[in-house]
UniProtKB/TrEMBL annotation:
GO terms for molecular function: small GTPase binding. It is a lipid-anchor. InterPro entries: CYRI (IPR039789), CYRIA/CYRIB_Rac1-bd (IPR009828). It comes from the Eukaryota. The keyword Repressor does not apply. This is CYRIA/CYRIB Rac1 binding domain-containing protein. It is found in: Membrane. The gene is LOC110529830.
Length: 324
């Protein structure tokens, strides 16, 4: 590791000279409390992911019911197919709220005085790893969520139409205690987003900055830009990537790098792409483009479609061209 740091110090003068141990970081006593809170949320991420992966929707049942409005059996079948799906969507929505809270808790820990963001990331590697895991999970969701959007929106709008119709007919439905009108409205706004979970995280980060008025904005943006820089250096340094125990760590690093760029772009007034940005966007995109296309297509799309400032006039043409 010593030699590696020498290599890095030679190559890169402005970057922090440390690495994020995404494979083995363990919480210290000081990190334990926040780590435990976040860990209870992260433990559920796998079941959320597999639940969404397995989401097929009730498209056929809904079509049959709509085409045969007087066939009560088909109406019942569609309704019985949609209800468990709506419960699953509520669970997914509830998870996004917990994830938002977890992210804000981590931001609080990684930005508070007296340490600088770099010192925080260096000292609190286990919290930095959890922050990374939230971003990794969200980018992983992004990569296949778009395939499920039509089914989710179709199922949910059928649910809301049926609930409204039954309310007019004074029919009480058990599921309303689970997903009432107010909850349905909130869920509807959430699922109307092209990338609900990414949107949740960027809004959570923006709110964190707005609500903590005494905390300098740089404390937050520097945590994000430092993580982006460290991930980039880890990815472009063969001496380091060859030490990863798993090939998944490479993908993990890429997703985290893209995730922090997206958050930085939403939170920093000038965004991530312009010349004053503390993130070397050209270098980050170059690193991604050197990877197998299958691994990075979704990530390049995320940079194209979920950032805020890419199409600003201040974005250098060569950066825009790289992402075309």
């Amino acid at each position: 590791m010593g030699n590696l740091l020498k290599v890095l110090t030679r190559e890169i003068e402005n970057y922090p000279h440390f690495f994020l141990d995404f494979e083995n970081a363990q919480p210290t006593d000081c990190e334990r409390e926040v780590w435990n809170q976040v860990n209870t949320v992260l433990q559920d991420s796998e079941s959320i992911l597999s639940g969404l992966q397995a989401y097929k929707g009730a498209g056929q049942e809904i079509r049959d019911a709509i085409q045969n409005p007087n066939d009560m059996l088909l109406q019942e079948r569609a309704w019985n197919s949609v209800c468990p799906l709506v419960i699953r969507l509520k669970k997914f929505y509830g998870f996004s709220l917990r994830l938002e809270k977890a992210l804000q808790g981590l931001l609080e820990s990684l930005t508070c005085p007296p340490y600088t963001p770099t010192q925080h990331l260096e000292k609190e590697q286990a919290l930095a790893k959890q922050f990374a895991e939230i971003l990794h999970f969200t980018l992983l969701l992004y990569s296949f969520y778009s395939l499920r959007i039509p089914a989710i929106q179709n199922d949910f709008s059928y649910y809301r139409r049926t609930i409204s119709r039954n309310r007019i007919n004074n029919m009480n439905l058990d599921i309303e205690s689970e997903v009432n009108n107010e909850m349905a409205n909130r869920m509807s706004l959430f699922y109307a987003e092209a990338t609900p979970m990414l949107k949740t995280l960027s809004t959570a980060t923006t709110n964190f900055v707005t609500e903590n008025k005494t905390l300098p904005l740089e404390n937050t943006t520097d945590v994000l830009s430092t993580m982006a820089s460290v991930c980039k250096v880890m990815l472009e340094t063969p001496d380091y990537t060859s030490r990863f125990n798993s090939e998944d760590t490479l993908l993990f690093c890429m997703r985290v790098m893209v995730g922090v760029i997206i958050l930085y772009d939403h939170v920093h007034p000038n965004g991530a792409f312009n010349k004053s940005s503390k993130i070397d966007m050209k270098g980050c995109i170059k690193v991604l483009k050197e990877q197998p296309a299958d691994n990075v297509e979704g990530l390049l799309n995320a940079l194209k479609f979920t950032t805020k400032h890419l199409n600003d006039e201040s974005t250098p043409k060569n950066i825009r061209t790289m992402l075309q």
